Amino acid sequence: MMQKYSQLKAFMAILKASFRSILSNPSALFFSFLFPIIFIFIFGSFGSGGGVHYNIAISDAADTSNELFDSIKANPLISITYFKTKSGSTDTLARRKALEKDKISAIVGIRKIEDSAGKAHYLILDTLTNASGNAIAALRQIFSNISNEIALKGSAQHQIPPVQSHVYAVREYRNIDFVLPGMLGFSVLFSTLFGISFIFFQFRQQLILKRFYATPVSRINILLGIGISRLVFQLINVVMLIALGYFFLHFTLVHGLDTFLEMTLLTIFMLLLLLGVGLIFSSVVKSDTSIPLLINLFAFPQMLLSGTFFPIDVFPKWLQTICTYALPLTQYNDAIRKISFTGQHLWDCGKELGILGVWMLIIYIVAVKVFKWE
Questions:
Q1: Rounded to whole angstroms, how far apart are CA atoms 272 and 230?
Q2: Residue 2 lies in a domain
Q3: Binning pLDDT at 50, 70 and 90, where does residue 362 land?
Q4: Can you give the pLDDT at residue 194?
Q5: Do 196 and 163 fall within a single domain?
Q6: Quick check: 334 and 307 in contact, CB under 8 A?
Q7: Which domain holds residue 123?
Q8: Cα separations (Å) of 357 from 76, 228, 259, 354?
């Protein structure tokens, strides 16, 4: 009696052999593991403080037609940031987010009051966060000094206006909370594209894919066995980077293990998308020297424009729109940051997942059309 051919065993054999070949490649281990670790420790160790310079915003109700405001505005230790919408009104949501992420140290209000003699004074009310660190005490001192100088100009008998602060408690936003998601995206993007593109091109050139095609193993199992070994390798890399960031650099995982699992699921989705891109590149090139060119054309703009190493709000508005809605790496970086720091879940990242889903659909339609076995 003939034993039925096991597609599962064939798939596992291909997966195991392919994974072993990856582990036997020293350069793959260096660029996938050590290189991102070095970047994370370098950039993640940078402090997020602004030294002796503080960015503040002015509240909507602040009285700005007085000497106190003019003195604050002219102080060399302080810069005032304005958050305006297209209509010219104050973007309170953007201002609050900037406060929570320590991009500004305080939201300052100035209120006019009168003493019992009818003399006008100005009271400073500031809203700060516990993420502002030493800025809380420093700003209070700066504001008090400014108030004292103004009060002493008129009369030494004037009451010195107090500074009243409301500290808004939020999670501390560290530099690693921005750097690590960007580095995860960078590592996943380049390592997966180079790995998948070169391995499938070499297998096609050496007729390995053609020989596999002639065996009883189903075509999907052949592709998945080779492709998933690369994806598993990258997933191990991502897990290790998250663990290093969490245990050594205090990377924020709001909901602990649940956040980590959601980040892992999102990474798997991104890896599957990049698997399709790698299959396309390996099929359309005529020589392996063309693969780096295609990868760089696809990946470098995303590395620079997707918020990998710096926020995209430094770009012009028209470019920000392209970065926000057109680039798949932006969606991955934004969703990872939402999940890890703000505590949102995968189902709260509908825009990001939707755009990634459209990209995946288009990529695999093209991959099916262009993929070659020989």
A1: 10
A2: no
A3: very high
A4: 85
A5: no
A6: yes
A7: 54-168
A8: 48, 19, 21, 5
Q: What is the pLDDT of residue 179?
A: 84
Length of the chain: 374
Query: Cβ neighbours of residue 17 under 8 Å, at least 6 residues apart?
Result: none
The answer to pTM > 0.70 is: no
pLDDT at site 298:
92
Whether residue 13 is contained in a domain is answered as yes
Both 59 and 83 in a single domain?
yes
One-letter identity of residue 311: P
At 122, is the secondary structure helix, strand, or coil?
strand
pLDDT value for 156: 43
CB 110 within 8 A of CB 67: no
The total domain count for the chain is 2
More confident: 249 or 133: 249
Tell whether 67 and 127 lie within a shared domain. Answer: yes
Do residues 95 and 83 make contact, with C-beta atoms less than 8 angstroms apart? yes
227-266 pLDDT, tens digit each: 788 888 888 888 888 888 888 888 888 888 999 999 999 9
Task: Specify the range with the lowest mean pLDDT, choosing from 22-26, 95-99, 219-223.
Answer: 22-26
Three-state secondary structure string covering 17-85: HHHHHHHCCHHHHHHHHHHHHHHHHHHHCCCCCCCCCEEEEECCCCCCCCHHHHHHHHCCCEEECCCEC
What's 65's DSSP letter?
S
* Cβ 82 vs Cβ 106: under 8 Å: no
Q: Are 318 and 235 in contact (CB under 8 A)?
A: no
Q: Are 67 and 118 in contact (CB under 8 A)?
A: no
Q: State whether 236 and 137 are in the same domain.
A: no
